[in-house]
Design goal:
single chain, 12 helices, FAD/NAD(P)-binding domain, binds flavin-adenine dinucleotide, 5-stranded antiparallel sheet, alpha+beta, 7-stranded mixed sheet
Length: 455
């Protein structure tokens, strides 16, 4: 087998939103950084057409700044992001162009001097006396070993921590079930005006699933007022179609995200029940099922819903989007009580404020629980309590399952990544373990970098 090896200060595994922010912050603070990514682009689930939710809290106050906001500013500058829009359902919605997100992410990494290794999947890690010393990736039959002082696991599923044998939890406490994956796709040829006109005549069709409480003002004038919106609704119409036997998908809510391009929308409506996104067999079943659901849904929309008759599929995401898999054990653990009561501890390195948003793994329902204000995520949630030199970032950090319902959104994941990157760079700089880095030093650098840590 062809074998290569390299050494870095910081190796970031996974180039999604949290890995991107982690790599940028570590490199900008002087570390020699590599990102290891199995795809041929950066962005992970941020480049599937999803909007960034939760930059603002329920009251409209901004709770995430730093690199996440910098990405938005760069996209706005070239006209590829519609900016933050307050939303009666999601607190705030920020629609952006995923293709330009990829380009800008790459440009920023190159400017920061980060090495990128694409098309390589993590296959092994080496741990000596509790210390992670190496990760190994494989691509095209080539094995590449990377030694580093600090490793940041930004794979979403926590693959590096898993391979290192760290303890983890999966799914809701009572059932062990995880939120369902979704295969996202985009439609072109959509006639927004015709659909809005239909909704104005059938306001009852604005209702999404019964489980979602929609505040006043989530209506057609709101959708018309800003490009940054997400549509959730059509419950009544889908129910009738169901009864008539014309809705093979059996979903009761259409969810689409407006895009930066006229006539194009991104659809987030498929659901793969009882699917473990960290199991390749389940993932394979999910891809096949997802593709089938897309075909059924598009036929249904074209046939039965005004505004959709000339639609065609312009892209299907290269793989399923995974909402929830493993959460690892850290020095601290974010608990839902702290999230709900808006606790902001001294060692906060990121704020979250998005609703607790839990999609059911067995049926159509979605729990959306409002938060009055932001909560703080402590640095300890990012530090493995079992393996030295390993930081967790993004949706695999140390927290309980209900907390993930809020933490998992992309601005928050980027804020976590930024903090992990700062902590890693300080660890390298000071020649100490990430767990020994004083939290005050992390907080001071994050504040210099425009992170928002208090309200
Ligand atoms: C269907 C769906 C809808 C969502 N809707 C929204 C929304 O509207 N707004 C919002 O803000 N958030 C939304 N989220 C949540 C959000 O997209 C994710 O929680 C967030 O992207 C997680 O960021 P991450 O960096 O931790 O992981 P990811 O975005 O999953 O990135 C992980 C990266 O690591 C790479 N990787 C994984 N494993 C390996 C490996 N073994 N080797 C090498 N590379 C690897 C992946 O290719 C990927 O690039 C949604 C999620 C889903 C699935």
């Amino acid at each position: 087998m062809n074998l290569q090896n390299f050494h870095y200060d910081v190796a970031v595994v996974g180039g999604g939103p949290s890995g991107l922010a982690a790599a940028l912050s570590a490199a900008r603070h002087g570390a020699k950084v590599i990102i290891l990514e199995r795809n041929g682009y950066l962005g992970g689930n941020a480049v599937t057409g999803l909007p960034f939710l939760g930059f603002l809290d329920k009251q409209g106050r901004q709770v995430v700044g730093g690199i996440a906001q910098e990405m938005i500013d760069s996209l706005i500058e070239i006209g590829r992001c519609a900016g933050h829009n307050r939303c009666p359902l999601h607190n705030s919605v920020t629609v952006l162009d995923p293709e330009y997100f990829k380009i800008i992410a790459m440009d920023k990494c190159r400017e920061a001097g980060i090495d990128i290794l694409f098309h390589c999947e993590l296959v092994d890690v080496n741990v000596v006396n509790r210390q992670m010393t190496q990760v190994s990736v494989m691509g095209k039959g080539m094995r590449i070993d990377i030694t580093a002082s600090v490793f940041i696991d930004a794979t979403g599923d926590g693959d590096a921590a898993f391979l290192a044998g760290c303890s983890f939890e999966k799914g809701q406490k009572e059932t062990g079930l995880m939120q369902p994956p979704t295969l996202m796709f985009s439609l072109c040829g959509y006639n927004e005006e015709e659909f809005f006109h239909y909704l104005e005549q059938h306001p009852e069709d604005l209702q999404p699933a019964e489980s979602m409480q929609v505040s006043q003002g989530y209506d057609v004038p709101y959708f018309r007022s800003h490009r940054s919106y997400v549509f959730l609704g059509l419950r009544n119409r889908l129910k009738v179609l169901n009864e008539e036997g014309c809705n093979p998908l059996n979903r009761d809510t259409l969810i689409y995200i407006n895009s930066m391009n006229l006539g194009q929308i991104y659809v987030n409506t498929t659901r793969i029940y009882r699917c473990d996104g960290s199991d390749p067999h389940d993932l394979t079943r999910g891809e096949i099922e997802g593709m089938k659901q897309i075909t059924q849904l598009v036929e249904l929309l074209k046939d039965k819903i005004p505004g959709f008759q000339n639609c065609y599929i312009s892209s299907i995401n290269p793989s399923l989007g995974i909402r929830e898999t493993r959460r690892f054990s850290g020095k601290k653990r974010l608990a839902i009580d702290d999230v709900v009561r808006g606790h902001i501890p001294e060692d906060t390195i990121a704020l979250g404020s998005y609703k607790v948003d839990i999609h059911s793994s067995v049926n159509d329902s979605t729990i959306l629980r409002d938060l009055e204000g932001p909560y703080g995520i402590p640095l300890g949630c990012l530090i493995s309590d079992e393996i030295d030199g390993l930081l967790l970032s993004g949706r695999c950090i140390s927290m309980d399952a209900p907390s993930l319902g809020s933490v998992r959104i992309m601005p928050t994941c980027m804020a976590l990544g930024e903090a992990a990157g700062v902590c890693a760079s300080l660890s390298v700089d000071q020649g100490i373990l990430p767990a020994q880095v004083p939290v005050d030093d992390v907080v001071a650098l994050l504040k210099e970098d425009q992170a928002i840590l208090s309200i």
